[in-house]
UniProtKB/TrEMBL annotation:
It holds the Pfam family Acetyltransf_3. This is Spermidine N(1)-acetyltransferase. The gene is speG_3. InterPro entries: Acyl_CoA_acyltransferase, GNAT_dom. Residues 18-163 form the N-acetyltransferase domain. Its EC number is 2.3.1.57. It comes from the Bacteria. GO terms for molecular function: diamine N-acetyltransferase activity. It comes from Leuconostoc suionicum. The keyword Acyltransferase applies. The lineage of its organism: Bacteria, Bacillati, Bacillota, Bacilli, Lactobacillales. Keywords: Acyltransferase, Transferase. PROSITE patterns: GNAT.
Length: 182
């Protein structure tokens, strides 16, 4: 189990799909989550996402829960895992506004990077983010991600064309940063 001070990575629990289905209607959560068509999911859809992932060799999905009371606060995933090249992409989300900006994201990133580098032996973990999503960018940088590039006018978002930034962290850089704190 991957447990931090505030949050832990966990499996899907009965009823989680219903919560995600209710929470997904927050535009601040849903719009930045995907650079493609947004699909409203039913509780069953959410359940199926986690069920498929539990059997996948290309995706790993965790729920994120508070350590103090096991309340569901979000999800984190490594997807498009490429075993040959030891790479994968990261997705993270905290659907409820009241669960954002509390350090859950940064701690979740630390836990998923530990899992990705120590358990899956990933060489590189990548992600994409809108440059204006400053809380996310701050958390990514705090956890060692560096910007690799920008795709200009890549996504039509909120009525205008916006850039997408690409970030990554390498296993050796992550290990070096962990040794700094010991």
């Amino acid at each position: 189990m991957f447990i931090g001070k505030k949050v832990k990575l966990s499996h899907y629990h009965d009823g989680d799909g219903k919560k995600f289905a209710e929470w997904q209607w927050d535009d601040a959560f849903n719009n930045p989550l995907s650079d493609d068509m947004i699909h409203p999911h039913t509780a069953e859809d959410w359940e199926n996402i986690f069920r498929r992932s539990s059997k996948s060799k290309e995706n790993v999905e965790f729920t994120v829960r508070k350590t103090e009371n096991n309340d569901l606060v979000g999800f984190v995933a490594l997807f498009d895992l490429n075993i040959r090249n030891h790479t994968g992409e990261l997705a993270i989300g905290f659907p409820k506004k009241e669960d954002r900006l509390k350090g859950y994201g940064s701690e979740t990133l630390s836990l998923i990077l530990d899992y990705g580098f120590n358990n899956l032996n990933m060489h590189k973990i990548k992600l994409t983010v809108y440059p204006f999503n400053t809380p996310a960018v701050k958390a990514y940088k705090k956890n060692g991600f560096t910007k690799e590039g920008t795709f200009k006018n890549e996504v039509f978002y909120d009525g205008k064309w916006v850039d997408i930034d690409h970030y990554a962290i390498f296993q050796n850089d992550w290990y070096a940063s962990q040794n700094e704190y010991q």
